[in-house]
Each structure stands twice: as structure tokens, then as C-alpha cells.
Amino acid sequence: MRKITGGLALAAALSIGCLATTAGTAHAAPAGTTSLYPPSSLVLSVAPGEDATAVATRAVTLTCQPKAGGSHPAPTAACAELGVTGADFAHMTESADGSFCTREYDPVTVVAQGVWEGRNVSFTHTFGNSCLQQAARGTVFHF
After folding, report:
1. Pairwise pLDDT comparison (70 vs 8), residue with the higher score
2. Domain named Subtilisin inhibitor: which ranges (predicted)?
3. HEC states along the chain?
4. What residue numbers bound the domain in which 129 lies?
5. How far apart are the first and last CA of the chain?
6. Integer Cα distance of 107 and 115 in angstroms
7. What gap in Å lies between CA 46 and CA 58, rounded to an integer?
8. What pTM value is reported for the model?
């Protein structure tokens, strides 16, 4: 066994020990943890008629954590709206002020399913027609 003497040798030995300790813990993650963010990922779809189980004519994905993304045309705005309302989808189905649509009854049903901030969500709403869907508040159901 070799004895280390002198300030420089001691500093070198300590820094090697620190590097070994740091390198050993850098790759360790808490068991069962893959992300610091709770999952927020949804599938949004629209189908003709009043039946939520009908074949969807359009569908998009919306991921909000850790950053906005997916195939939704405005993911950043949609995620912001969900965050502000606490994912209150009913609020987003109300008509925006100043919108005008015909009274033609040709229903479309929107469905939101997935996970929002770690909890399962499932929401269904039938609009009287596609104009009313597009006249709804915000951008969550505008796709």
C-alpha cells in the first residue's frame, strides 16, 4: 500500500473519490420514477351523431407534460386552457361570445379520453352541429 503525502496528492485523491461518488449516483433514479411531471396526455375525437361510440371522423393527440405537443393543431394554447380551467371540459363546450350558427340539427359528438395531471379523464359532449363545435370556447375541441 502506498502512502499519499503532500497537499497536491491529497487533493487529487479527494477529487477522484468525489468523481467516483458523483458518477455512481448520477445514474440512480428513485424506484418506479420515470418523470418529475405527472402525465397529461389526451386523445380528442369527433364523430357524427349523438353516439360517442360511433367511428370518429377526426382524432388528435394532445400531450401537455412535460411540454405541449401531439397532433392537435394548437397544442400550446389547448394545454394552457386545460391548465387554467383544471381540465373542465364542460366549460370549453360553451359557446364563445359573439358566435353565430344556424339552428340546423346535425349533431357531432366530441370525446376526450386519457390522463390529466395523473388522473384518468373521460368526457363526452354532443354539439347540435359542427358550427357549434367550432364556436365553443378556446381551442381544445378545434381540430
Report:
1. 70
2. 39-129
3. CCCCCCHHHHHHHHHHHHHHHHHHHHCCCCCCCCCCCCCCEEEEEEEECCCCCCCCCEEEEEECCCCCECCCCCHHHHHHHHHHHCCCCCHHHCECCCCCCCCCCCCEEEEEEEEECCEEEEEEEEECCHHHHHCECCCCCCC
4. 41-134
5. 72
6. 26
7. 5
8. 0.71
Q: Residue 131, exposed/middle/buried by CB under 10 A (0-12, 13-18, 19+)?
A: middle
Residue 34 is predicted with a pLDDT of 59
By CB atoms closer than 10 A (0-12, 13-18, 19+), residue 124 is middle
Mind listing the pLDDT tens digit for each residue in 74-102?
999 999 999 999 999 999 998 877 788 98
Q: Does residue 31 lie within any of the structural domains? A: no
> Does some domain include residue 104?
yes
Q: Judge whether 92 lies within some domain.
A: yes
49 in any annotated domain: yes
CATH number at residue 129: 3.30.350.10
Report the domain count for the chain. 1
